[in-house]
Specification:
CATH topology of the largest domain: Trna Endonuclease, Chain: A, domain 1
Helix content: 10-25%
Oligomer: single chain
Number of domains: 2
Keywords: Endonuclease, Hydrolase, Nuclease
Pfam family, one: Mrr_cat
GO biological process, one term: DNA restriction-modification system
Protein name: Restriction endonuclease
Strand content: 35-45%
Mean pLDDT: 84
Distance between the termini: 31 Å
CATH class of the largest domain: Alpha Beta
Largest sheet: 5 strands, mixed
Low-confidence stretches: 96-108
CATH architecture of the largest domain: 3-Layer(aba) Sandwich
Structural class: alpha+beta
GO molecular function, one term: restriction endodeoxyribonuclease activity
């Protein structure tokens, strides 16, 4: 989903009471994210300024909307200086239309049993994860997310469209989609920033709520710094995070 202004702003100058209509697309838009107990809260800030054509009064206006948890419009507020809102601003919630037809979903009946067995093995011996094939690791990760309440689908081993797993669930009655990429690397072979950038591009193209990159190794410092700058759009899961998920 994406939050935006539903209509143009209508403001009244505090000095001369003249009415002005502000094009909603003329406002600056910034987003900020904060981690809370139910995940990230995303703050959308729509701000602008305008000089009254009649009296020269300088006016400022700001509208804020908060998405928490991700996928839910929590609340909204607004403030102004030098003017008053003649009509209360309203927030529009734009939902992405998810189209899974580009993916040839793989049946994961027997794969679930195999993945569950592998999770049991890794739980008792961390080194067992390095004995998995790349496909078994994808099944392994898919099962972890399935146990967190997601509906999961493995993409084909070739021509996978840039991700290995599509995980979906409804949050508060709204669709939420994760694109998950799995990288089975040796312990001393960290994932670099280029793979993180590539996955972010897939996330943007598919209009998913979030992308997740999971590896059996670690991430380079540039990779982590890049992911942090993307705020709520991408998460990195290294071997230590993965073991925590299993526990």
């Amino acid at each position: 989903m994406e939050l935006g202004l539903e209509n143009d702003l209508i403001i009244r100058c505090d000095r001369c009471s003249s009415i002005h209509i502000i094009d909603k697309d003329s406002l600056d838009v910034d987003t900020y994210s904060y981690e809370r107990n139910m995940g990230f809260e995303v703050e959308y800030v729509f701000a602008g300024e305008y000089s009254c054509e009649k009296c020269g009064n300088f006016m400022h206006y700001t509208v804020r909307a908060y998405e928490y948890p991700v996928g839910i419009l929590n609340y909204e507020d607004y403030e102004s200086r030098g003017c008053t809102f003649a009509q209360a601003p309203s927030i529009a919630v734009n939902y992405y239309e998810f189209d899974y037809r580009n993916y040839e979903e793989v049946e994961i009946g027997t794969e679930v049993n195999r993945a569950y067995l592998n999770i049991y093995k890794v739980l008792h011996d961390r080194e067992e994860i390095y004995n998995l094939s790349s496909r078994e690791f994808e099944e392994f990760v898919a099962e972890l997310f399935r146990q967190q309440g997601f509906d999961v689908a493995l993409t084909p081993e070739t021509r996978d469209g840039g991700c290995d797993i599509i995980a979906t669930k409804n949050i508060g009655g709204l669709p939420f989609m994760l694109l998950i990429e799995c990288k089975k690397h040796a312990k001393r072979n960290p994932v670099g920033v280029s793979l993180v950038r590539s996955l972010l591009g897939v996330q943007a193209d598919r209009k998913a709520n979030k992308a997740v990159l999971v590896t059996t190794s670690s991430f380079t410092k540039p990779a982590r710094q890049f992911a942090e700058r993307q705020q709520h759009l991408i998460s990195l899961v290294d071997i230590n995070d993965l073991m925590q998920m299993i526990r």
